[in-house]
Amino acid sequence: MTSSYAHIAANFVAFKRIPLRVVLATAFASIVLAAGMWIQGQPLYVIATFALLPWVPVALFEGLWKIDHYHWIAIFGVMTLLQLGHLTEHVVQVGVLSFTEGTLVCPPPVDTMSNAQRAIDAGLRSPNTAPINMSASVVVKPGPDGQALLDANGDPITGPHACGIFGQLDLEIVHLVWEMAGWLCILALVVQYPRNRLLWFSLALATFHTVEHLLISYTFFFDPIQVYEGTRQLWGTLAEGNIVTAYPLGQEPAIVNFYAVAGKNGILAKGGLIGMLFPAVNQYLPTRPYLHLYYNSLVIVPATIAFVLEIRRTYDRYLRKALPALTTQEMVAVTPRLKTLRYKSGDIIVTQGDPVEAFYIVSKGVAEVVQIQPDGWGKPLATLCAGDYFGEAGPAGDAEFIGTVRALTDVELLQLDRQVLEQILAESSGSRLNIEQLAVKRYAPQAIQQA
Q1: Looking at the 3D structure of the chain, how many domains does it have?
Q2: 358 with 226, same domain?
Q3: What is the pTM of this model?
Q4: Are 263 and 285 in contact (CB under 8 A)?
Q5: Under a CB-based contact definition with an 8 Å cutoff, are residues 186 and 206 in contact?
Q6: Which of 151, 214, 251, 446 places its Cα 20 to 30 Å from the Cα of 413?
């Protein structure tokens, strides 16, 4: 029995816990909310936030289901998805810097009382407009003197802030927590998949990347001594509807710490530790946004390929619990053929006398098998919990259920077509033996009674 990689991958990414109608409704709500924010003129991060919000509960419930059924490969998948989103942030940031007049001011200026007043004092804003406390999505590029850079026509050069989509999260504490969490996840995956060399490569690069952020965070949080004379960029903010523009209004002298001078650049970025120790090579080093894009690419791309390779060995853990004699290849081939069914407490799953057309594995909840006697009394045959199964033929090869299966709690089942089961048993003598032994134990007393 074989199953193509495309079939395995499609089964893994398919929604199993969430009904299709809920997925479609969520997609519709996401589009409507995003369109509404766009029509209102909201900045990109607000549009993106509202587009993603409806998917949070869907992703949570579906993710928990997959982790329950697939364990580490599901955790691997969740980590890969989150890290790809993180890489997208870096790609957007570098793209804005490279192809637009983006300005690296992160987090972007906010339309606060002080920034609004500064714009009023400069004659850029009406005194009658109140600040709206939203981040700037448009930034006028500042020159070396802190004033607006002008184009050939004498107009200010404007563009978006180069902080990715969610620039408000471009904070050192966020970077540190994210990188540490990512490093721990990759370390755990290496322990689980020690033969995957791509994961080892990702772990090595993730370790160095984490060291970078540890150094940066140390200078930010634990080296606050202000010993350098520097400057601070001043901004004025203009609000037009929900669009905030940040306008550079010069610089003021300031005493700054090492973080502001070089610490924020870490080890290998231009102006960082290596650049300070070896000025001759500083000009050849990448700036921080580009360096961290390189870091994340070298960590996430190999990890994603590693996930794609590991998904070829994905199987449902309840299938393994029910039929432990199956080989890994057999479980991988069977898993995409499993259909998920759900029943409420008290529901009748199969009725005594129904033809045995499928094999069922309990993956959640408790069910009972009861045989109805001629006098109407129900004789309990078995109690089924997670990992137990029913739908196997009786000791005489019976083709019908000799008992009724009823859900004692909410129950989730994995259903396997009878023909597929027969093919499995033909290829796996161990599984056939296990099923026959259970059938004898479960049904033999009844067979004797009937005889």
Answers
A1: 3
A2: no
A3: 0.82
A4: no
A5: yes
A6: 446
